[in-house]
Amino acid sequence: KVHVKLLQVLFILSVSTFPSTATKTALLNVDIQNCFVTNGTLPVPDGETIVPIINIILQGQQDKFDVIFNTQDWHPYDHISFASQHLGHDVYDVIDLKYNPHGDLCSTSTVNTSYSTKCSVVAHNVSQTLWPDHCVINTTDADFVSTLLTTDKTFIIQKGYNRKIDSYSAFYDNGGFTQTELHNRLKSFDIDTLFITGLATDFCLYWTAKDAKRLGYNVYVVLDTSRGITFQGTIDAVADMRTKGIHIINSTDVASALEDLNQSSYATTLPSNHILVPMVLVAFWTMLDSIVFE
To answer: Which of 6, 50, 87, 223 has the most other CB atoms within 10 Å of its CB?
Structure first.
């Protein structure tokens, strides 16, 4: 006769490690670079004033974030978004860029660069605001603001380095043709929730938050850690983010939001790992204790 104590041990091992449903969070700081603050090439009004607020979040809550990503606008000198590349156009003009089905930039009456091509078929029209030359690769203008704190779990995501198309979002270029590495990096850390700060509210932060929500992340925009280029554009962007289910909070709400997320994930995990499992274990143990194999 063989007692089934071995089966009891195996059962304990099988139920002792259930998959965790704990929330995994990332702080995403968008384009906090010299080019977007005072004395930069494309200064966002009061852009530098967000840095001390973000630093307070980092000092108080960095242990609550599983990872931190800083995005970096990173343009070649002849980028298509620069007004200097379009004769007859001025900064802040808006033009249409045309692309073929493969995502190649088409030559038109207003676009004739060394990297555009004659297209037999136009598949995509992308609206482009023309900007001053800014955040050019390997210039101090493109460097991060020096007072922004970093940690040993801070990583950099560069965007906008394809000269043929702009990339407001930290996830995709403006045509949606190619994806940056951000989504895959977040997935590698099992991140499901993002807290987003940075510049500018009505452009790169806005596009990043929209894409994050569309990709299935739970998104919090920390509004007082962002500044917009235009007042109305910022109002419209915030309103649209709210309609898309993006949480709009202030820096003073971050700690409580993180705590609520942790409590919620603990409550979700608790019934399976702390109540249901012991009940099943006791019942099955009792049954096994009465079983003997011949």
So the answer is: 50
Share of the chain above pLDDT 70, in %: 83
Q: Count CB neighbours of 152 within 10 A.
A: 6
227 and 47 in contact (C-beta within 8 Å)? yes
**CATH architecture under which domain 1-81+133-294 falls:** 3-Layer(aba) Sandwich (3.40)
Low-confidence ranges of the chain (pLDDT < 50): 1-2, 13, 15-16, 269-270, 272-273, 293-294
Write phi, then psi, for 284 (nearest 5 degrees): -70, -35
Q: How many angstroms separate the CA atoms of 247 and 166, rounded?
A: 26
Task: Compute the C-alpha angle 45/49/53, nearest 5°.
Answer: 140
Cα–Cα distance measured from residue 184 to residue 181, given in angstroms and rounded to the nearest whole number: 6
pTM of this structure? 0.84
Residue 201: partners with Cβ closer than 8 Å, 6 or more residues away? 223, 226, 227, 228, 229, 233, 234, 237, 238
So where are the chain's domains?
1-81+133-294, 83-130
Spatial distance between the Cα atoms of 69 and 10, rounded to a whole number of angstroms: 42
Angle between helices 277-289 and 5-15 (to 10 degrees): 170
Write the pLDDT tens digit of every residue in 143-155: 999 999 999 999 9
The answer to whether residues 71 and 208 touch, using CB atoms and an 8 Å cutoff, is: yes
> Looking at the annotation, which residues are catalytic?
31, 159, 204
